[in-house]
Specification:
The chain has 150 residues and is α+β, with helices and mostly antiparallel strands. 59% of the residues lie in helices and 16% in strands. The protein has 4 helices and 4 strands.
C-alpha cells in the first residue's frame, strides 16, 4: 500500500507542477511547437470533461469525483498490493488522475490542459498528465479484471 501512496503523490505532483509551469510561462491559447506537425505544448483550459462535454457543470464534477474517489479509495484500501500488482497499480493511477484534475476544479474552477497532438491529421483534444493517468489506470484496471481476476 505504501508504494501505491508514493505513486499517487508522485503523479499528482507531476501533474500539478507541469500545469503550473505551463500556466506560468504561456498565455492562454499560446502554443510552443515541440515536434512540427505532431506535438505542441498549448496552454488551454477546460471547464468540462473530455472534448469539453458538460462544460461548466462544476457541481456535477465535484459529486462524480467524490463518488469515484470513494469507490476507488475503497478498492485501494482493500486490495493486497503484493498479489494483485497490476490491479493495485491501475487503481493507484486512477486515483492520481482523479485527484490531479479535482485539485484544478477546486482551486481554479477548470482544468489546465497543455499536451496537444495532431495524429495522422486528427487534432486530438488537448489534455494533461492527470488525463494520461486516468486512461492508463482504467486500461490497467480492466486488463487486471478481465485477464487476472482471482
Amino acid at each position: 500500500m505504501l508504494y501505491g501512496f508514493i505513486l499517487i503523490i508522485a503523479l499528482v505532483a507531476l501533474d500539478q507542477v507541469t500545469k503550473i509551469i505551463v500556466s506560468s510561462n504561456l498565455e492562454l491559447g499560446q502554443s510552443i511547437t515541440v515536434i512540427d506537425g505532431l506535438f505542441d505544448i498549448t496552454y488551454h483550459t477546460n471547464s468540462g470533461a473530455a472534448w469539453s462535454i458538460f462544460r461548466g457543470q462544476m457541481l456535477f464534477f465535484y459529486l462524480i469525483t467524490i463518488v469515484a474517489l470513494l469507490i476507488f479509495g475503497y478498492y485501494f484500501k482493500s486490495i493486497n498490493f503484493k498479489s494483485k500488482k497490476l490491479y493495485s497499480f491501475g487503481i493507484s493511477i486512477i486515483i492520481a488522475g482523479t485527484l490531479g484534475n479535482f485539485i484544478d476544479r477546486l482551486r481554479i474552477k477548470h482544468v489546465i490542459d497543455f499536451l496537444d497532438f495532431n495524429i495522422f491529421g486528427y487534432d486530438f483534444p488537448v489534455f494533461n498528465v492527470a488525463d494520461i493517468c486516468l486512461n492508463i489506470g482504467v486500461a490497467l484496471f480492466l486488463i487486471a479484471i478481465v485477464f487476472f481476476d482471482d
